[in-house]
Amino acid sequence: MKKILISLITVAVVAGLVGGGAFAYFNDTETSSGNTFTTATLDLKVDGKDDGATVAHYTLSNMEPCDDSGYYKWVLKNDGSIPGKLSATFSAMTDNENGVIEPEIAAEAEPYGYHGARATLGHPTDGELSEFLKPGIEPSAVEGMPGVTIIERNDTEGWFIATVEDEIDTGGTCGWGPKGWSVPSTVISQWAVGPYAYGNYYGLKSWGGKTFTYGTLASGAEIAFFFRVQLACNLQAWDGCGWHDINDNVIQGDSVVFDITFKLEQLP
């Protein structure tokens, strides 16, 4: 009986050790605290401002043949934390007649039937200034110019795009460029002007509703958009086939109003 009791006690002790062993493994616990998920930001500043109402806008009055607006420049900065795609979109052009005087009445009544253009030089209801303002120069003006390379061209619609290696004034084009430059380094040139023909508008009017894309603007990066228009000394119209002299009086007293919307959007 004594041996049996001792055996039972031994079994109980062993069982106790086994049971106690389940709570004897080493362990250590750490906590990952303060986990935070933050959305990125895209913040486009124009000339250092967020408020479109205070962004620089320009008025050029009393234009006459031979006038050149010179370059207007907006500096665009991605003040957000991620890169974005930058673009500039021109609104539709609002041409105002602002009343007509005798020389303009006579000019607008002149026939203008070249290749599908409207019957008269004057628009039936609106002003015509945006059709004859030229935001560009002819490609022949830059062909062979050192440091200037035409990368895209459409003679039917009357425009070309070129790159400029150095700070070279090509003579009157729009586009993108370093904020410290006085001229664009990526040139956008609309050189053909005149009334609607061949299914196309020409001059500044052709830019109504058009978007020009710069590409990716990195976080913290800046780029400038340049704009410039000219009014030729002797107004001519391009009909998609050739140039035709027109009566300069057709634009007397006219004005054009438009917006430029700069947009920075998330990359896919």
Question: Keywords, please?
Answer:
14 strands, three-stranded antiparallel beta sheet, 268 residues, 3 helices, disordered N terminus, alpha+beta
Structure description:
By secondary structure, the protein is α+β, with helices and mostly antiparallel strands. Helices cover 12% and strands 26% of the residues. The chain has one domain. It has helices spanning 2-21, 102-108, 129-132, and strands at 44-46, 72-78, 84-90, 94-96, 148-154, 159-164, 174-177, 186-190, 211-217, 222-227, 236-238, 243-245, 255-257, 260-266. A seven-stranded antiparallel β-sheet has the order 1-2-10-7-8-6-5, with no helix packed on it. Strand 7 (174-177) and strand 8 form a beta hairpin. The longest helix has 20 residues, at 2-21.
Question: In summary, what is this structure?
Answer:
The chain has about 270 residues and is an alpha+beta fold. The protein is built from three helices and 14 strands.
Q: Provide the residue-averaged pLDDT.
A: 87
Question: Helix-strand pattern, N to C?
Answer: HEEEEHHEEEEEEEEEE
Radius of gyration: 35 Å
Ranges where pLDDT stays below 50 over 5 or more residues in a row are 1-17
Largest sheet, described in full?
Answer: 7 strands, antiparallel
Residue share in β-strands: 25-35%
SS field, number of helical segments: 3
User: What coarse outline follows from CA principal-axis ratios?
Assistant: elongated
Helix content: 10-25%
SS class: alpha+beta
As laid out across the biggest beta sheet, the strand order is: 1-2-10-7-8-6-5
How many β strands by DSSP? 14
Number of domains: 1
